[in-house]
Amino acid sequence: SYEKNNEFGVISRSINQMADKVVADAQLSNKIVNVNYVLMSQVESEEFYINVLSTLMEQTDSILGVIYLKDESTQSFKYKRSIGANNGLLRDFDCEAYDNEFGLTLANKKINIADYSQSADFKYNALGLNLIPNQMMTIPLIVNDEVDALIVLATLNRYLPHDNSLVERLLPTLSARLASVVAYEKIVTYK
Question: Which of 10, 138, 157, 159 fits as disulfide partner to 105, beta carbons 3.0 to 4.6 Å?
Fold first, then answer.
C-alpha cells in the first residue's frame, strides 16, 4: 500500500477502500447464499426452526435465538423454538402489547437492535437469559403486512452493519419460507 500524501497516495487509498468494499460485499453475498440454502433445504418444521436459528446465530455471532409465532386464536405470540435460552423462562405475549421488549418491532414492523450494554440490571425474561446481552436484534417476519412471527437474536458483542444488512436482505425469503412451513404444519395437523 502506497502511503504518500500526493495524487498516488489518494489513488492508492481509494483503490484499497474499493477492494475492501468488494471483499465485504462478497462475504455478505456468501452468507446470504448459506442462509438461503438452509431456508430452502428444510421441509420438516422442527428441523427448519432449529436450522434457521442456528444458521442466523452463526452468521451474526449471536449467543442465542428464539422464534415466536403468532397465534390468531389467542392474539398472542407463542414461543416456538430456541437455542441457548432457558425454555422454562420463556413466555408468550399479547400481540398488542407494545410495552414489552418487542414493542418497537411490532409497532414499526422493522428490525430493531436494542443496546443493553449500559443496563447492568437488565434481565430479559422473555428469553430467559442468565447473561446480560450487549445487544438484541428483533426481526419481524411479515406476511400480508402483518407480523406473523418474531426471531430474536442476542449477542454479547455488538451487531455490525453487515449483520443488519444480511438480515434485511434475507427478510423477504425468510418471511415467505416461514409462511410455507407454518401452512405445512397446519395441513399435517388437520390430516
Answer: 138
